[in-house]
Design goal:
The structure is a homohexamer of 328-residue chains.
Chain A lengths: L12 E5 L4 H11 L6 E5 L5 E5 L7 E5 L6 H17 L4 E6 L18 H12 L3 E5 L14 E4 L2 H11 L6 E5 L5 H11 L2 E4 L2 E3 L5 E3 L1 H8 L4 E9 L3 H12 L4 E9 L5 H6 L4 E7 L13 E4 L2 H12 L12
Parallel strand pairs in A: 1-4, 4-5, 5-6, 6-7, 8-9, 8-12, 12-13, 13-14, 14-15
Antiparallel strand pairs in A: 2-3, 10-11
């Protein structure tokens, strides 16, 4: 039985947003029924950032919402400065809310003399003053271990399951497809929750924008199915989805749904995906803002504000939030 | 063109072994043509460990070899104490050589209120004084990012490839099988190097000792092949191998080779695997010591001493060792 | 005048026990009238520990009780993992309650290239997340200074004094004997509280299990007394007590009581001590669990649960606990 | 008498450049007669940076040259990643060479809830792995104290003095003018070295781009002089120089030279300054790259490569470099 | 509109004073209506300090007031020990209240191989356990950035402005004079608040006790005024004031007021200043205690106790204290 | 067989002395045949210390000799500043040579709310930049564990033994007396090396300057002997020695020698001891400077310069120095 949660006392907290995604920050604050405090952002003529928090943080629980969307470097420096301000001004707790942690993808050394940047950023956030972190759908679950401060890796999976369940899923004819075998585990978890079978493409990355699939192995796995749900953490250029759709169709799939938590949709991504006739829906969340002019008829955006809001509320109430986690 | 490497000057270094695997330590020291210094180990009557390094380390480059084999806790504390001694006695550099880093498997939080113990151990090693670390075949490549000190994740893959290539591989009829989709990436890398196809089982872990495979998905992937190479990082009880073999045989495989870097082979593991008629070879390395009485006729043990020795030698010569890494 | 202490609100705290001494943990929790939360312990087949705390710790004051009893290494790793879990899961405060801190005996470098392991363990506990520590009867008071976090070194001396005072002490004929001059200070403090004279044996440690006393010096100090109270911090094999008793009897003592805070009593220790005819009582505490089958008629076990309970309660009430300390 | 300096052995060092100012990096490397190693920079489609150092750094002395020019955030993240790579790959020493440290200007809290970003960046550089830092003409000398690692604050003053001395300075009629009283100290040091008088404008900053001077106070200080040398650390939009020139002319100055170490010259700055008839020269350095198309006839660029080169060379030779410092 | 502040609950806090300035500590405690707890200070015969705090600090908010007055080293060690005691005894927060932070003057490296001691002391305070710091009128605002813990740099400027405003200021004939151009910024801020003009002397420091002014430049700035207010952070020997007065009188000033926050007044300072006929008032604060026998008729001492008291009270109430800062 | 030691290359090192004991620093430098570099010490009029090292330390091995003699606080701050300078100026290694570490006596908490100052000072030394420490005759061997950096606790015991052995010791009639049972262990080690019996006084400290001995227990231990050697780490006021001598004479001792490593001899200590007719010699070392005018005919000062010199030389040669340690 769930305990009743005490609403957040606005006097205890200060809620700020970086410039990356103020709309989501507003939505989370709205869920919690607390005001979003203003922040003043400007830039000196030498391109230095100048930031001033608009409300006293002394002794308060401070939340700073910032997605690492492009321009990523600016948004990181902005976040680090906001954390630093809160610490220097005597905040009691400093929670970094990072709905989209872009560098989670740089999580290993698969070439000599490169940076495991996800770990670096984790260390920088701590240096700047973060005492707790909330994020969503990390590229790999091990990234959690890069953080030295308590970290809550939330998931949007439940949102997708609920949304599809409401539509009804044809369990016999549907297969969930991980666009890369490295994402097979979360795809399998999603498929199990939906009650359908899973498959995984083996992707050889030629470059950041060019990939090549192991076709025979994919064909073996999807043959006999007619509906596919591509399930990924992030879609940027959309190349993978487009390529994968074409193969799936070649192997007999007649209806495709593409799902991703982080909808970057750079350049012509949405157009390129939308134009595929067999693709009926693109389901994503609002961890990354998508301008109205980019939104197409096939796009569905589920808000993660209630997930972050609920996590914050329970944390404030010292309740477990494990069932909002990826593993749950 | 490879540069000539200067041999290690024995006056510069001190090479020690914990109690976990002195034979491997001897072999690495032998490869480097330097002596293994003695260490005195004892235990007080209250079960406290007491360790004394047998040679002065002041201003020297110190290497301490310790695999995290059972009893794991004792071997960790032993290693931490040896690192602490070296630091307190003024060593110049302290290299922890951990051929088998058992806790690499505890690399994520897939249940609430558990420990990402691989990260914890990484932090403890640094606290105790390690300034550099070498290890082999981490369960996931992200574990590399848990370490704050320079870390070299070596691989035994080249040893396996060379060994099998010497035997000859029937490329049309052979498939490499990852016993879990989480291990599909390294299996694919291994398969590519061998020039054969890859497949991955989807394992649902019921408990530490009980697993259940997604049979239809496995069947789709391996049908048509007659030879399988199971490729894993570690075999402990052998349950997974036994179970997987039985399915592979059921799906048409007539010859199985099992490969793992870390051959724990607890309890009756080797007997249980050896007894499978279709299994022709078990190939492993000596990161974990295997007592002669456990060794069976089907077991091949390839030594990693040259890999660690070469890595140490190149590091001493300030040369890159990237081609000994997992990603290479 | 003592202030009234507010009982602990069970919603504020979480109380856990490692596997070393759950009975004592239960007793302390009982004193505080709060529940002991469950913890799940298991071991993977590669001997890795796996631990899951059984109750949410987010924002709570967490207590973890663990004595460093054999197998010491396992109990240390277990404790470090539990601390790490609490920290990673967002506990507000993390108190390590270590009734028996075995490595306190490794508190100095009396040989080259050994570890001051007590300091090492202190650092490891902090690395793993402990924010406060309570322990009892450290081998030397300086060990307190090894800890960077607030540490409360409690004493069981008052328990022993009260127990003996209830029996009545013949002050003229009784002498307190420190089995080693390094323990003379606490013995003198104990003797002063009892109102009797003190003496100290000079022990030359031949090995961990073999000691030799300076007989003439001991004889000079105890001659004329007929009752002796051997007062030590810890008894493990009992060799010292047996040897010392035999000398004391030779020098005229006719009745001996042996007291120690930490009753390890390894192997045949209790049998070997009990069999001494002149020894009438062995008084110890429950910082180390003593299985019922080892307990003999001469053994008295005084519980330290009220001491730890009282210290925790006062700490919760922000009251001084100095009068529970060794120096008081 | 100056000791002879041993040239740098190219085998000992690795010299890299970020993307901010490769020409200056080349020039410094050229001064030292060592090669500039290549670095691979790219950007993932989600805007994440990806960097690979082009030469092994294991055990080497690594230099990374990066000016914090626009886009500043990208150049900071780039630098942090390069430091992180060097550390993770086992570099022996890691020197961050930052000719233009833009955030030095954010050196105090002159409004509530802002960041002393210069200190933040100093901490981030250390977190990322820098072990030593060289920079030039910090906005205030106290910024030196923000760094926890050894830091060498070099000066370009000697370059300017030598350049002007070669032209000849009319000491009776010339006054050095600090455009803000906060820069009066370095202006006075420069004036003393030139042998002329100094003056300081009192600037009230209305906004980043709008300033207002205390005119009577300026007039009192410059009246009677006919030549002025405006001496500043950095010129960005040029507004200050333009405004100040106009006042100086009004107060009787007929010839103006503008000097700054860091020539940002954003937007139309150079055009706006050049167009002033009484302004005869703009003297700056190459800490910030100035594209040829922006360079005007009145602009003189003095290279700081010999200053950084000399400092690096002396540091390599363990010689003092104090006479290259601001205070010298 | 100012919120009502809740008075400090004496049970929450412990307020201590070092030996430097107990009278000010009493005054601040008095402002807050809380008791000053006793502290026992003594010195062992080997000159080691021995300090015992006189009230339990467990779980409390602890304030320790100590000005860094002569003997400065003793007062620093005393403060560090008091911080260490509070931390070791489990204080919840530890606020170092340092009205006079003498080493703020050692804020830069203006000679080779000297210490930026202000940064060193900042680090030592953190090492010893301070979690927050309050101080007043730092020599330069950048010193704020030396602290890694939240720091509040208060100002006494408002006290001086209010005091002079009550007397009435002749705005046409009065000029504020900074005795060194490095102090021109705060002098300008003070002058602006008073509504008068500002000037700055250019001081060449020959030695700690001997200075030489740039006379022509000073004359240009002050000519025409008849009243001067010398405005400095600290007066020690008074040499600067005496010298400057003599010049000002020479240049036409007929009435001088000397103001400083930190009135060290070593040796004959007060006598030497007082004896100047044109000097009518010396206005300072009580950040440094001035013994009654040193006080002369021209001296006015304004208490900073209300400033520190107000800052502490607002901090306790989680209110902003920015308007008590130097920049406000 | 001892290896030949390479003499120190003066180009590698810089040797400095604080103001506490330049004569000893000279002697150590002399032993090593390297020059003592000059250091400039002065004091600002506000009592702030100002220190400038007189030789470049960049990339060098730096030694700083400072005994913590009165005025202790000044000497600590001086040492911390010198360490800080060396670190900030890029020294390669920084060795703090502290012949007399006065605060070693503050090594435990034997009263509530006091500081374990020895640990605090250890932490401060590390914060300021020390990378290695050498000291002599710590009050208790556990203090070694307070340091996080490599620390060499040297002993003067061998000097005393050799000196007395040269005189000849009457083994049957001589007893070594520890003036406090807490010093019995080192006294026993000394006695064993001399081949004589040991005894220990039980001292109740009434105050820093007043002590009371347990007379009967002392009498028991020394009766029958006629010569006593009082063996202590430090003599300050000499009260203990005077008091103890009087008791020893009362119990039959006719000839007393007093030995201490650290001869503070404050106030009239030397006079008070010298005047005792039965006391024939006071043997000490030069860890603390003793002005010639204080030296009496009974005083023998053995220099520790060769001990420190030898330790430094061996450390430079990467040789073990364990046989110079207290435990050897």
């Amino acid at each position: 039985m769930r305990e009743t949660l005490r609403p957040i006392d606005p006097k205890d907290v200060r809620f700020f947003s970086g410039q990356s995604h103020p709309i989501l920050a507003e939505a989370i604050a709205g869920y919690l029924n607390i005001p979003l405090s203003s922040t003043h952002f400007t830039r000196f003529s030498n391109d230095n950032l100048y930031i001033q928090l608009g409300a006293s943080v002394r002794g308060r629980i401070v939340f700073i919402v910032q997605s690492l969307t492009p321009p990523v470097s600016d948004h990181i420096i902005e976040l680090l400065m906001m954390l630093d301000i809160a610490r220097g001004a005597g905040a009691h707790e400093i929670h970094a809310i990072i709905p989209y942690f872009s560098y989670a993808r740089s999580d290993k050394k698969d070439a000599p003399r490169i940076s495991i940047t996800a770990r670096l950023i984790a260390d920088l956030l701590q240096t700047a003053g973060a005492t707790h972190l909330m994020t969503m759908t990390l590229h790999s679950p091990q990234v959690h271990g890069f953080f030295s401060i308590p970290t809550d890796p939330l998931t949007a999976r439940h949102l997708f399951v609920r949304y599809l369940a409401d539509q009804g899923v044809d369990r016999q004819r549907t297969v969930v497809v991980a666009p890369d075998v490295g994402r097979a585990k979360p795809a399998a978890r999603f498929a199990a929750q939906l009650g359908v079978q899973v498959a995984a493409a083996y992707k050889d990355r030629i470059s950041d924008k060019n990939v090549k699939f192991n076709e025979p192995l994919l064909e073996r796995q999807v043959q006999g199915y007619t509906r596919a749900i591509i399930y990924d953490d992030e879609i940027a250029t959309g190349t993978t989805v487009v390529e994968l759709c074409s193969l799936l169709v070649k192997f007999g799939i007649r209806d495709v749904i593409a799902i991703c938590t982080h909808g970057l949709f750079t350049e012509q991504a949405l157009d390129n995906i939308t134009v595929i006739p067999e693709l009926s829906q693109i389901i994503t969340t609002d961890t990354v803002p998508i301008p109205p002019e980019k939104q197409t008829g096939k796009l569905r955006i589920l808000s993660v504000a209630p997930v972050f809001g609920e996590a914050i509320l329970r944390n404030y109430n010292r309740q477990s939030i494990g069932d909002l986690f990826s593993f749950s």
